Please model this.
Amino acid sequence: MLETTRTYIAQITNHSEVRDVLDQCGFSASKLWNVGRYFIQERWEEDGEIPDEKDMKSELKAHERYSDLHSQSSQRVLEELAEAFTAWYNSDDDNNPPGYRKRGDRHPRSTVTWKQKGIKHDDKHGQLRLSKGWNLKDGQSDFILAEYETRPDVQVESIQQVRAVWNGDQWELHLVCKKEIPVEDAPGDKTAGIDLGISNYLAIDYEDGTSELYPGNVLKEDKHYFTREEYQTEGENGPSKRALKARRKLSRRKDHFLHTLSKCIVQRCVEEGVEKIAVGDLSDIREGDNGGPRDWGSSGNKRLHGWEFDRFTRLLEYKAEEHGILVDRVDEENTSRMCSYCEQIRDANRVERGLYVCESCETTMNADVNGAVNIRRKITQSPSSGDMSNGCVAQPGVFLFNRESGRFTPREQGVCKP
Model:
């Protein structure tokens, strides 16, 4: 059995009874976010540093807005704010820092998170008791009694977190549950390597010589379109309803793409009899040698920050584990520069974005697949064999994303140079 977490969306069946108090909680979460945002701005102007979540919790725990919510709920608001500023600081210079929440809105409704100490679950009657903050206790009840309903096939147990989320029309509950699922035996004993390129191309190489490319152009196109849509409809007092709708739609499409991509790759690994997948560890790709953000150029930065490397790898890990396949993050140093045939390391070998020509052995390969082969060999000792210029390393299979079906479908094998 594999212990993992699953998030289930639940409808609140007594919504009319709890809407007002959830509105108060959402309003309080927005206000606390704004208090934290102001505190960060002041600290930034004073000493040029961004306070972390520990500093904010220590400084703001006595603030009136902090006591509006359960202590763990308030802590989560500040944690999210710290995470948002960290992501902004490590992103390219074109991005704006996190702003104030829903300025100009009389009823801002931020997501509110309850952790285990603030939750009591009555699974028999489908009820959740969510603790209120001290300032919102009205003398009649110290908690919100929310009755919920999920899909018939969902069994809610071992709740770790509950998030109240405003979906634009009403509140809904996102239940994060610990779950044990049966794990299959590994489908084989082979290995596979995955190269996550910043040009939105994912390449995978299987131990038997099969190689594939998964272009991520859909992500790039969606981000360009919906980001422009959001900026064009920005209101004077913050994002308009149309801008928020565009933002939510982009998030949903990105979620679907990443889930579909990871699911497709795991299924292909099952078909190829893979036991272990090696994935390049890109956790420090945004960091330069001096500790600051690394500059990939204006075009490279945009492509880089459109890819959510860590999130994709986490999705791949939990989907693969269900089939008994282990995902191993490996150091990918020199994997894009080294020839997977003769192992010569040379920057000039990578002629163009998708073309690798080794000056030593004259092997011509797809550059992304060459990197995937080298990553795979980090966890296996299988030697290179045969003329790689004429095989699938030079002409990999290509899987394209079909917008109508929402799936990846194979295309006929292409040439080495895209």
